[in-house]
Amino acid sequence: MLSIYIFIFIVPVFIYIYKVEKTNPFEYLKLTKNSLKGILIGTIVSLMLIGLLIIKNILIGSFHMNFNIGILWISGMLVGFLEEIPVRGFLLQKLDSKYSFWTANLITTFIFTSLHIPTWINSGTNILQSSITTAMVSLAFGYLFKEYKSLWVTIICHSVFNLCIWIGL
To answer: Where would you find the membrane-spanning parts of this chain (predicted)?
Structure first.
């Protein structure tokens, strides 16, 4: 499944950027400039999210974390790369070159959220609640990407966010 995703989403993005945009895909995707700053900001935002989720769970009396999530630990680390490269690294930047940032971010958020719906249907997840949460997070990720000019911010935040959900935070 991982290799299919890489060949359907990641490889075409890299080929398009290299052949059509005629630039280094890593630079275009904002993976080279501001890397340390992006990693630092991503880590800080992620730690703040973890803190808020812990406080929320303490306040509502629901603190049942499951660290035994098996291979999801690896998936959690990879999902940031696999979803952020085509969505914010590529799509958001392409749309931002044609529309205002917030219009581009809204379109990207709609597409990003829609892509998750089949998984939610398959797993019996509350689609409305998950759509709202995912849309809010996606808008925030888009803003962080624009603000800090580094895809590392969203890669780290996205991975940590998913891990928090999977362990029950």
So the answer is: 6-24, 36-55, 67-87, 99-121, 127-144
Domain range for 163: 34-167
Residue 164: what pLDDT?
A: 87
The crossing angle, in degrees rounded to 10, of helices 101-123 and 127-148 is 140
- Residue 83: name the closest of 149, 165, 13, 15 by CA: 13
Q: Residue 140 domain-assigned?
A: yes
The CA distances from residue 98 to 67, 92, 107, 161, in Å, are 43, 10, 12, 29
150 HSE (CA, 13 A, CB side): 17
How does residue 79 score in pLDDT terms, banded at 50, 70 and 90?
A: confident
Confidence label for 64 from pLDDT (cuts 50, 70 and 90)? confident
Q: Please state the rounded mean pLDDT for residues 23-44.
A: 96
Is the residue at 5 inside a domain? no
Q: Is residue 29 part of a domain?
A: no
Count of domains in the chain?
A: 1
84 domain residue, yes or no: yes
Nearest to 46 by CA among 140, 153, 130: 153
